[in-house]
Design brief:
The protein is built from six helices and 14 strands. It is of the alpha+beta class and 284 residues long.
C-alpha cells in the first residue's frame, strides 16, 4: 500500500493538499481584464481637464489684476519728469488696502504718507484714473507762495518738482486764492470750507495731491481733495516706456495710428533706460 493512499484506496489528505499546491503553481490566479474606456470618453476627459486648467489660470489672472496689481499707462505730462507720457506702470493695489485683524500681521499694509505717488479715481469723474503725489495728509495746512509749497508753516524740499514756466500765475502759484474762472464745485467748496488763515486745511479721510510738473498739472488746486476711498494703490515699477503723445493714448477709438507707430518704431521709441525702473516716493 502506497503511503499517500488511504485504506479505502482514495487519496489521502496530504496528497490532496499537494495536488492543490501543484495546480496553483501551474495555473496562477489572474484577475479578470478591466475593459478600457471608449476613445470618446478619454477625449472628453482630456478636454475637460484642459478647460479646467484654463479656467483656473484665468481666475488667477483676474484675481491678480483686480486684487494685487494693475497695469496703468501715463497719458499726460502732469508728473514730468518723474513719470513720462507713455510710461507703463504696474500699480500695487495691496499696500493701501484696509487691513484685517489677522492680515495686518501677514501683509505689508501701509498708510498713505506724504511724498507718496498715488494712483486714484479722479474725484470729478471716477471713470478716469489719475496719478499724483501726496503733498498733504489729514490735518496738514497747505499753502503755495510764489511756486514754493509750505506745509504746516515750513517750506518743503521737493527735488522732484519741475517748473517749466517763468511767469507767476496768481491762482496756481499763490494758493489758496480766488479769481480762477473755471473751478468746479468741489474746488469751490474746498476754498469756502477748508481755508483757515490763508492755508488749506486737509480734512479727515482726504488728501491734497499735486503733480510734479507744477506749472502744468490738474490737481487738488483745481478740483479739491482726494477721498481715501478713491485711492487705488501706488506705482511699483515701469515695466515698459514708449515715446508717444497724449492724443494717441487717450484716443477712445481703436488707436490704429498708435498701433502702426508701434509696428514701425517699437525699438527706436522704446525708452530702454526706463524699462524695469522702480518707482519710489520721496519722504517729506
Amino acid at each position: 500500500m502506497q503511503p499517500w493512499r488511504s485504506a479505502a484506496g482514495r487519496p489521502s489528505g496530504a496528497q490532496l493538499l499537494r495536488w492543490k499546491v501543484v495546480n496553483l503553481e501551474k495555473e496562477p490566479a489572474t484577475e479578470p481584464p478591466v475593459p478600457e474606456p471608449p476613445k470618446e470618453d478619454l477625449e472628453t476627459v482630456e478636454t475637460r481637464s484642459a478647460i479646467a486648467e484654463w479656467v483656473v489660470t484665468i481666475l488667477l489672472l483676474l484675481f491678480g489684476t483686480t486684487t494685487l496689481v494693475q497695469a496703468f499707462v501715463i497719458p499726460t505730462g502732469s508728473m514730468e519728469d518723474s513719470l513720462l507720457v507713455g510710461d507703463h506702470l504696474l500699480v500695487d493695489k495691496l499696500s493701501y488696502a484696509p487691513s484685517g485683524s489677522i492680515s495686518r500681521y501677514l501683509l505689508p499694509y501701509t498708510p498713505v504718507k506724504r511724498g507718496d505717488i498715488i494712483v486714484f479715481r479722479y474725484p470729478v469723474d471716477v471713470r478716469q484714473t489719475f496719478v499724483k503725489r501726496v503733498v498733504g495728509i489729514p490735518g496738514d495746512r497747505i499753502r503755495v507762495e510764489n511756486k514754493e509749497v509750505y506745509r504746516n508753516g515750513a517750506k518743503l524740499n521737493e527735488p522732484y518738482v519741475y517748473h517749466k514756466t517763468d511767469y507767476i500765475d496768481p491762482y496756481r502759484d499763490n494758493f489758496p486764492s480766488t479769481g480762477y474762472p473755471h473751478l468746479n464745485d468741489r474746488a469751490t467748496d474746498m476754498l469756502e470750507r477748508n481755508v483757515v488763515n490763508g492755508e488749506i486745511v486737509v480734512p479727515p479721510g482726504s488728501y491734497f495731491a499735486m503733480g510734479d510738473n507744477r506749472d502744468n498739472s490738474s490737481d487738488s488746486r483745481y478740483w479739491g481733495f482726494v477721498p481715501r476711498e478713491n485711492i487705488i494703490g501706488k506705482p511699483l515699477i515701469i515695466y515698459w516706456s514708449y515715446e508717444t503723445t497724449t492724443d494717441r493714448l487717450t484716443d477712445s477709438g481703436i488707436g490704429v495710428a498708435h498701433l502702426i507707430d508701434l509696428a514701425q518704431h517699437f525699438f527706436s521709441k522704446t525708452r530702454w533706460r526706463r524699462t524695469l525702473q522702480l518707482i519710489h516716493g520721496y519722504p517729506s
